[in-house]
Amino acid sequence: MCVIFLSISKVHASEDAPQPKHEQWYTGSLISPSGPQFKAGVLGIEPYFTYNQAVDYLGANGSSMPMASGQRTVANSTMVKYGLTDHISIQIFPAISYRWKKHEGNTSGLKFGDLPVDVLWRFLDPDPKRYIPSLSLFAGMLMPTGDYTQLGRSQDGAGNGAYVFRTALVEQSTYELPDDHTLRLRMWGMFRRAVSSARLQDMTSYGTTKGFVGRGRPGMSGQTGFSLEFGFNQRLVLALDVARDWANGARVWGSYRGGRRIDRISAASGDWMVAPALEYSWSPRFGVVAGASTFFAGHNTNLTVSPQVAVNMIF
């Protein structure tokens, strides 16, 4: 699964409707996507620093299978979001990574991944007093900017070479609790589908080796989930994400030198993920969130643990 990912951008208090009492400050949870900025001209920047390690493999029936050595990745991804209007924002999420694995070596250097570019539209404004949530829609494209073909090393694959359409619906609502606490709920559903195929040659991120010429296309994928953020006080928030990922297998077709042809579709995969975190904001515009995500169930996927920290800045 691309962590890409990850996947994905966060929201701060400036994106919410005005809060009663003390105006709770948020950075946003680790996994949940957010809606657009609440004001035109507002710029949000949030760099993430992540370490990802595969500790097991979940087989076709969901059973855990020991791994001799797991994939390790360190990555930096930075959400950049700008409010074009009070309801529409544009967002990019560039990422660089470095990977290594026992017996398979490491990347030849820092690798730039595929680049998500999205437009976000909030079509329903929130009204917490009347229990009306905000509803936002985003749509965009994953640009094939990462290395994927004619790789020098197997670890150098950082992209899939195809344009991938992305869309999501995000709901967010905020509730007042006793003793001046708040609870924020987000629910979302995301869908991705490739709109082109990648031209492949020799060693590629699709698992082909030297002498191959053909094409590849990533399978459809998606994510659904919810997050809860409980405000202990104005600055400190406990966050929890629970998400379900699914992905159809990628298709590869073509031939090797000598005439051997292949046309295969890899196995579909899925996982359930949980990500607890703590948020701390020292002002309405600046804060930090730290925690870890991990899979607790799934099939045909690596069971990974991913500690991560992000700094949220609103200008």
CATH class: Mainly Beta
Mean pLDDT: 91
Structural class: mainly beta
Number of helices: 0
Proportion in β-strands: over 45%
The CATH topology comes to: Porin
Output the strand order for the largest sheet: 1-3-4-8-9-10-11-14-15-18-19-20
List how many beta strands DSSP finds. Answer: 20
CATH architecture: Beta Barrel
Radius of gyration: 20 Å
Q: Give the ordered list of helices and strands.
A: EEEEEEEEEEEEEEEEEEEE
Spans of 5+ residues with little confidence (pLDDT < 50)? 1-20
How far is the first residue's CA from the last residue's CA?
A: 32 Å
Gross morphology is: globular
Short description:
The protein is mainly β and 315 residues long. The two termini are 32 Å apart.
Describe this entry's structure for a reader.
The chain is mostly beta strands and 315 residues long. The protein has one domain (13-314): monomeric porin ompg (Porin), CATH 2.40.160.40. The chain has no helices and 20 strands. Strand 18 and strand 19 form a beta hairpin. The protein starts with 42 loop residues before the first strand and ends with a strand.
